[in-house]
């Protein structure tokens, strides 16, 4: 995950007691907008730190994320469509940057092809899972615990990849984030990102999508605890326009139900 209040040694995240009906959690935040946003991003990070042990169940469509065999089959067909787009990128022997690297679902195929992968995430628990997944391949990965809202690239990379992150960037920060990505990508370099379309069956059975005009979603963990996160569902055309305005010559496509993904060149 990409936002943090600071680095340091990993610590166990504080989990809130289960409270699905708390009016305080659903009420508008009355602080100044910038304070409210920082508080929301801190809560989002806390959620992803706590979610690290169960994150892959979402991707594998297990437990609360299982929407039946037909939906699961469709999900993995569309995952394969995105994987094929990744496979088509010129990554062999490349220096690759992965943002919000998470548990390594995408780091692993990157590391199999790249000379080196710089994998950035704000959650130490996610980085630990990533290292564990990669095993010996982790020797090709430079792991960095960074706040992506504060991080600035000190160099350029041949390719930049980020998966299921852009929807967690507040709308007011999206253009700045995309400009940062453009600075990190060498001229003519390759880029891929993937994220979710607005589809209720993509999330857990006990989670509801936020109204279209809102960017705050209430998510639950397996223990029932509730956490607010940022969740913006972008239309591919609008996201492509904003990428190009930031200097990223991206084409954004959609799969039939679940994903949008952008590629360059």
What do these coordinates show?
The protein is α/β, with parallel strands linked by helices. The chain has a single domain (about 25-265), classed as 3-Layer(aba) Sandwich (Rossmann fold), CATH 3.40.50.150. The chain contains eight helices and nine strands. A seven-stranded mixed β-sheet has the order 3-2-1-4-5-9-8, with helices on both faces. Strands 6-7 form a two-stranded antiparallel sheet. Strand 8 (about 250-255) and strand 9 form a beta hairpin. The chain is globular and about 45 Å long.
Please give the structural blueprint.
Blueprint: H1 23-26, H2 33-51, H3 55-60, H4 69-87, E1 95-99, H5 107-113, E2 116-121, H6 124-134, E3 141-145, E4 157-163, H7 171-184, E5 185-196, E6 216-220, E7 226-230, H8 236-245, E8 251-254, E9 259-264
Parallel strand pairs: 1-2, 1-4, 2-3, 4-5
Antiparallel strand pairs: 5-9, 6-7, 8-9
Index terms:
265 residues; alpha/beta; Rossmann fold; two-stranded antiparallel sheet; 9 strands
The CATH superfamily is known as: Vaccinia Virus protein VP39
Indicate the low-confidence ranges by residue numbers: 4-28
What is the makeup of the main sheet? Answer: 7 strands, mixed
- Count of separate structural domains: 1
Instruction: Using the coordinates shown, work out and report the CATH topology.
Output: Rossmann fold
Number of strands: 9
Q: At the first level of CATH, what is the class?
A: Alpha Beta
What is the count of DSSP helices, taking H or I runs of 4+ residues?
8
